Structure formats: structure tokens, C-alpha cells
Amino acid sequence: MWFKNLTVYRFNKPFSTDIEALETALEGFTFSPCSSQDISKFGFSKALGKLGHTLVHSTNNRHLICATKEEKLLPSQVIKEALEEKVSLLEEEENRKLTKKEKDALKDEITTTLLPRAFSRRSQIKALLLLDEQLILVDSSSAAKAEELLALLRKALGSLPVVPMSTKTPIEVQMTEWLKQGNAPAPFTIQDEAELKSAADDGATVRFKQQDLSEEEVLAHLETGKQVHKLALHFGQSIAFVLQSDAGLRRLKFSEEFRAATDDVAGEDPLAKLDADFELMSSELVALMLALVDALGGVEDSL
User: Fold this and answer.
1) I need a surface site. Which of 27, 185, 198, 303 has the fewest CB within 10 A?
2) In the structure, what pLDDT confidence band is assigned to residue 289 with cuts at 50, 70 and 90?
3) How far is 127 from 260, CA to CA, in rounded Å?
4) CB-based contact 179:218 (threshold 8 Å)
5) The whole model's pTM is what?
6) Lowest-confidence range among 52-61, 147-156, 259-268?
């Protein structure tokens, strides 16, 4: 339930939907397991997992969705060795070299033969549609995986006018200024981790972890022109995270005290506990994003 990373997108055109329309749209693209000849399958699954009943879980115009991917694990080395053996045998039998087209056909044939015996791996990726704030938060540190989910959502909805979030002033410029000043705008506080990069072509990088970032050793790198591209921050007393220059938030950690707010929900109903956790998490993520956008000077207006 608790998001661990945020890859952030914003709608560049007004967008709205309701839970019924969203549920109906996703139903046409639900996940189904791989058949013997499928190398992968990707589709929407229940938002709250096995305990849930719907593809969309919503509260206060905030919609949680989940996509499941199953992939067959067929090592390329296994295919390569089987192909080399088959090619060698045929070339010896026919006393000629096989063409590239023939080798490609053999590779496809071998892959088809091996697929039913391949192991499968499943993974899930979740996203939170914040329609009042016109944002989508994808729980992934990989932009490629986030885009894969958005592509599936776009296919289900027919259109999805979103772009990666960017700010009016480059984030690395603002984080560098925060570190120089020794503090970030409230309610954020600087923690003990940062990554600095040189703006020069050499791209020199220095990383600090579990270190007082106000020390001269750190500030000296800023004086030589390096900029902050990753900075550990804390939002109030609830969420610790690392802010990146691409507007991504990584390694989110909700404090135990914050998560304990739903402990009084009846333990006999695990679904009610999940629902309470979702409402708590989504509300705080909205507060976090609004405060962060404000601290960063607003999102970029032009595309």
C-alpha cells in the first residue's frame, strides 16, 4: 500500500473522470496470466490486491490503480546455445551457410519451443491519480516502467494528456541554493545525504551519506560550481525522501508514528485497514506535493 518512490507527471490539459468511468475503461485491459506461448502479459489488476474487489480504489477524487506484469524468464544464453547447435547441424547436413533470415526463423522456432518450459516472474506497479491537483504519481523509480503503465492507461482511456513534471526554475539550482543557505523552505528540512555534480563536461560527481551537509567539505564543492542533483529531505514529521533534479522522489519512508494513525481500525476487517491506510497515505502525498511545488516555485507553464 505505502508508496516507496514517486515518478511525477502533470496533466497539460484539463482532465477529469469518475470512478465508474475509470473502472469501466480499465476492465477492457485487465491482467491475464501468460499462456504457454506468451512471453509477457501486462494489464490492470485489483487496486487493493487480493482483498480488493475493484480495479480502482478511490477517495476524495483520488484514484488508486495497479497494473500487473508477468514475464517468461528465458535466458538469452540458453537461446543462443540452442541456436548455435541447430545452425551448426543444419549447415553440416546441407553443406552451406544459413542466411540471416533463416537463422532468425530458427531463433523464433527455438523460442516458441522453450517458452512452455520457462519460469515466470510477476511484478506490480501502482499509480495515484490526483485529479483535483491534476497530477499522477507512479510508484516506481524507473521512468521506463512508469511510462509503460501510462501507455496502458492511455490505451484504456483513449487519451491521457500528461507530461513529466518540471518546475519554472531547475530543481538542481534550487536545491543548491538550499544547501548553501543551510535550510530548505518549511515544512521541509535537509537531512544527511546529497549528490553533487559538476556542470562542466567532465560530469564529476561526489556523494555524501550520513554526513552533516553544512560542513566546509560539502560547501567547498558548491563553491567550485557543483550543483545538488539529489538531496535527502524530511516533510514535516511524516515522510523522509530523496528529491532528484528530475522531480522524482525516491526512497519514501513514512514514519512509524504517522503510519500508526490507522492502528485503531478494527483488526478483524483487513480491507477496512487497507482503506484507512490509503486515505491516510494519499492525503499526505497530496500535502507533500502541494508543499513541494510551492517550495520549488511552481510548475513550468510551457511544454
Assistant:
1) 303
2) very high
3) 23
4) yes
5) 0.86
6) 259-268
